[in-house]
Each structure stands twice: as structure tokens, then as C-alpha cells.
Amino acid sequence: xxxxxxxxxxxxxxxxxxxxxxxxxxxxxxxxxxxxxxxxxxxxxxxxxxxxxxxxxxxxxxxxxxxxxxxxxxxxxxxxx
Length: 81
Prior knowledge:
Blueprint: H1 3-16, E1 25-28, E2 43-46, H2 48-61, H3 66-76
Antiparallel strand pairs: 1-2
Helix pairs in contact: 1-2, 2-3
């Protein structure tokens, strides 16, 4: 599977969306740990589900990145252990 292509498609769909009703989360398109910035061109609003999927894809795209694994881990930790 081409994880980069799926990720790019997810991000493009979010960028082209005119409205996002309900809960949303801000996402760095290029993560800061990989050189991304807080500039508006590098930020996109995603649904909670999209945000989780984006991070799962980033782990697949950058399997050597501990920061990507850590970010995904934070999203999956429920605190119920």
C-alpha cells in the first residue's frame, strides 16, 4: 500500500472541505519533529477519526521515527490501565 498517497489524499480532502461541523482537531501536515512549522499552510483541521488515521499513516510512512510512534501512542492511551 502507498501510505504517502493515502495520507496526501486525506489531507487534500480536509484542505478542500469548506466546513467541518462538530468536533475537530488541528494537525500538522508535516509534523514538527520532521521539520514542519506552525505556519497556517502546514496546519489542517481534521475530525478525530481522520486525525487518528493520519497518525497511523505517518507511523507507516516513517517507521524509524520514534516521535511518530510516540504521538500515535498518546492518541491511543486511555489512562484506564
